[in-house]
Amino acid sequence: MFSKDKWSEIIESLTSNWFRTILTSFGVLWGIFILVILLAAGKGLENGVKQGFGGIATNSMFMWAQTPAKPYKGLPKGRRYNFKISDVAAIKQNVPNLKYVSPRNQLGGFGGANNVVRGLKSGAFNVYGDYPEVIKQEPMDITSGRFVNYSDIEQNRKVAILGAGVINDMYDPGEEVIGSYIKINGVNFMVIGTYKKKGNNGNPEENQKQIYVPFTAFSQAFNMGDTVGWMSITAEDGSSITDLKTQIFDVIKSRHTIHPEDDRAIGNFDLFQEFSKINGLFIALKAVAYFVGILVLLSGIIGISNIMLIVVKERTNEIGVRRALGATPWDIRGQILMESIFLTIISGMSGIALATGVIALVNMQLDGVDTSEMMFANPSVDLGVVIIALSILIISGLLAGLIPAQNAIKIQPVDALRTE
Asked: Domain MacB-like periplasmic core spans what residues (predicted)?
């Protein structure tokens, strides 16, 4: 129950020596400030790193054919084989909980020879033969026109979608891109769309120098037949591609007569596994932030506990009078604990408010900066952190006042009244 007299006594006790109260509360303020700032900085780093993935489907893996390391059923080790387009249908049919299975073929690469010509201009670019689903696995902003669709796949249309880097190299400023033609390894393709990718994952400039064409037109134009260079496979939400990839490998091994225990015949990059490691790193950073923040806060709590011991000593006569007038040990204990908790919460909330102001200033500075190529973005703390901080403050206040409160109730009324 609210007691005006009790709260007036708490305020009077804490304000009787302003300088001492402020110095004592600063330790708690600084501890909470450090805790919130560390958590916000960790969140900003996490946002920046995840932003670098550019919205890519992280529950994915990439798979390509290598040479078998073991002989099997009369076939020698070290032989060469290729994935086939029929493998895609087999994987979809035999492995559950897969969202996308996208075959891909590729021309060109970093440092390759010029493979694209337009008029008097030429350049070396990555050219990918893809299915429409790839835009959901590697999200990109279509800045004009459209992306590959299934009509393009079914009709083997020789159409292309160009990255911003390709346009800068192959077109003059202001020149119309949509509807123009480029020649890829001597084959004409009509441009139907342009895109731009964001994020700092990999080489941002190189990510814009890519050309996408329909998988079927690619295979027909460059004599690939039913060969698949590699696949991008994404699991359904709630399933892990890491758990499913063994089943995928088993399908490929069975179809291409590869030894079931040959782990070198199929190359893969498990993006989900790598992304999980990054998430684990940020969990560890958050734990370190809590550890350091709580240690700093602990020093402030010790300071409050010491001051409350001094306050109890100074109020020995007052406590003796109250005990003589019938105050119970719980009344005395509750009064000391309330003073400790009140001082701790006020100090801690001031630290939270100060940290919030600093975070707001940092975000104001970042608002005018393009953070897409940075490893730090939008530092913040959520409501859960504030609730946790308040819980820490309440528990800390109880701990800080516990020993002084116990000392207070041990004072005998007669002894207290005799104290000068």
From this structure: 21-248
Residues composing the chain: 420
Task: Look at residue 7 in the predicted model and tell me its pLDDT.
Answer: 62
3-state secondary structure of 160: strand
Distances (CA, A) of 342 to 110, 217, 400: 64, 73, 11
SS3 357: helix
Sign of CA dihedral 184, 186, 187, 193: positive
Give kind and range of the element (H or E) at residue 32.
Answer: helix 18-51
pTM of the model: 0.69
The confidence score (pLDDT) of residue 198 equals 61
Q: Report the alpha-carbon distance of residue 48 to residue 173 in Å, rounded.
A: 32
Summarised one tens digit per residue, pLDDT across range 339-359 is: 777 777 888 888 888 988 998
| Structural contact between residues 226 and 85, judged by C-beta atoms closer than 8 angstroms | yes
In this structure, which amino acid lies at residue 378? N
Q: Cα-flanking dihedrals φ and ψ of residue 152, to 5°?
A: -65, -40
DSSP class of residue 309 equals H
pLDDT at position 62: 93
Angle at alpha carbon of residue 371, lines to 367 and 376, rounded to 5°: 100
- Which tokens belong to 170? 């192959």
Query: Is 407:353 a contact under the CB 8 Å cutoff?
Result: no
Quote helix, strand, coil % in the chain, to nearest 5. Answer: 55, 15, 30
- Residue reference for tokens 């032989």: 79
Is residue 322 a contact partner of residue 331, using CB atoms and an 8 Å limit?
yes
Of the candidates 387, 379, 376, the one whose C-alpha atom is nearest the C-alpha of residue 43 is: 379
Write out residues in the chain with pLDDT < 70, as ranges.
1-17, 52-55, 109-113, 198-207, 311-327, 329, 370-374, 403-420
Q: What are phi and psi of 218, to 5 degrees?
A: -60, -50
Q: Which pLDDT score, from 0 to 100, does residue 227 have?
A: 93
Report yes or no: 336 and 408 within 8 Å, Cβ to Cβ: yes
Kindly state the tokens that stand for 393: 């403050």
What does the DSSP assignment read for 40-77?
HHHHHHHHHHHHTTTT--SSEEEEEE---SS-BTTBPT
